[in-house]
Amino acid sequence: MRGLNVAGRTARTRSRTSGTRALQRVFGVLAVTGVCVASAPPALSAPTDTTTPTRLADSRDSASGGSGSSDAPEFGLSASTECAFGGNVIKSTPWSLQRILLDQLWEQATGKDVKVAVIDTGVDSSNKQLSSAVSGGKSYVGGSATKDIEGHGTRVAGIIGARPLKGTGFVGIAPEAEILSYRYTGGEGEKQGNSGTMSQAIAAAVTAGAKIINISSDTANKEDNDGLRRAVANAVKAGALIVAAAGNDGADGKPANTYPAAYPGVLAVAASDRNDERAFFSQAGDMVDVAAPGVGMVSTVPEGGQCTADGTSFAAPYVAGVAALLKQKNPDWTAAQIATRIEETAQRPGRGPNQYIGWAWSTR
């Protein structure tokens, strides 16, 4: 989140220094680990007027270094995992949740009455952990917003707001948040979305009263798009906090901007691993505001059950869940105040952030 002015205080643009780990304390005393914050204005390229193909920010392309530039981008499960929809739950508590004092955290907030929009491939509400979580939405590619043939959006929604279920240690960060499902892509056959359907979904989410908007996608070839830029700007002006995945083309370590993550006012999320290091695929760049767990992420899948996957796609909803908790605890706070709270409570390893994961040092 760049250039935020909160109660007379402005998040500063900072010089880049070395650093490889991440920690976030959300409520001061209660530790919510794996999240760190950086702040710097992106160097934005010239916008375009046409729609732009998009791709989901799971790790499918990252392993091979692909650009994901096809008009019908690859969707679905991480290349590093195999998963059967409608399968079993995972009994153990995921590593990303073991670092959080969940019971103490939920004494402060659970996300209740906070609307979180998931702009993705749909959210399958037949999964028992999501059936009471999804409260609205719309599809822009045919079919229902509460169906998900790819599995991506269902995973994202679970990390944010999956309800507790007997027999599994997995639960969403904000287990009482309301999920609004906007299926902007992932339709049958040729019905794939682009920056145009993403822009429509952003506008609809704002109209529906979403205070947090999660976008675990980016444009193909890291292409800026004028219509998407306007949609994001309008949402930010309306007071929504957009949380977006930074992308998975980071194996070469070279900094770059991705969109919508690099637009002003968006909280751009990179991925960290179990060792609190940057996940090898996570895109680096001055746009990076936040890093959160994005490797071996357990979550819900269509038709029931759970699986694991890698990607900044699954780091972003971790942060969106945290934002929902902060919004419930502080309902009068603006998006800027929520982001600034995250920044100010990070435990910093040095005098400044870095382009990979940002400010903070992770502890267990």
What can you tell me about this protein's structure?
This protein has 364 residues and is α/β, with parallel strands linked by helices. It has a single domain (5-344), classed as Rossmann fold (3-Layer(aba) Sandwich), CATH 3.40.50.200. Helix content is 21%, strand content 16%. The chain contains seven helices and 14 strands. The chain has helices spanning 95-98, 102-108, 152-161, 195-207, 226-238, 312-329, 335-344, and strands spanning 5-6, 9-10, 36-37, 54-56, 115-120, 134-139, 178-183, 212-215, 217-219, 241-245, 266-272, 290-293, 297-300, 306-309. An eight-stranded mixed beta sheet has the order 3-12-11-10-8-5-7-6, with helices on both faces. Strands 1-2 form a two-stranded antiparallel ribbon. It has a two-stranded antiparallel sheet with strand order 4-9. Helix 3 (152-161) links the parallel strand 6 and strand 7. The protein is globular and about 45 Å long. It starts with a strand and ends in a 20-residue tail after the last helix. 60% of the residues are buried. Residues 2-48 and 61-81 have low confidence and may be disordered.
Strand content: 15-25%
Let me know the CATH homologous superfamily: Peptidase S8/S53 domain
Structure class: alpha/beta
Please tally the helical runs, counting DSSP H or I stretches of 4 or more residues. 7
The biggest beta sheet reads: 8 strands, mixed
The poorly predicted ranges are 2-48, 61-81
Number of strands: 14
CATH fold-level topology: Rossmann fold
State the helicity in percent bands: 10-25%
Count of distinct structural domains? 1
Distance between the termini: 26 Å
Average pLDDT rating: 80
Anisotropy-based shape: globular
Supply the CATH architecture: 3-Layer(aba) Sandwich
Order of helices and strands: EEEEHHEEHEHEEHEEEEEHH
C-alpha Rg (nearest Å): 18 Å
**Arrangement of strands in the largest sheet:** 3-12-11-10-8-5-7-6
CATH class: Alpha Beta
Active site: 120 (charge relay system), 152 (charge relay system), 313 (charge relay system)
Region (Disordered): 41-74
Main location: membrane
Membrane topology: Single-pass membrane protein
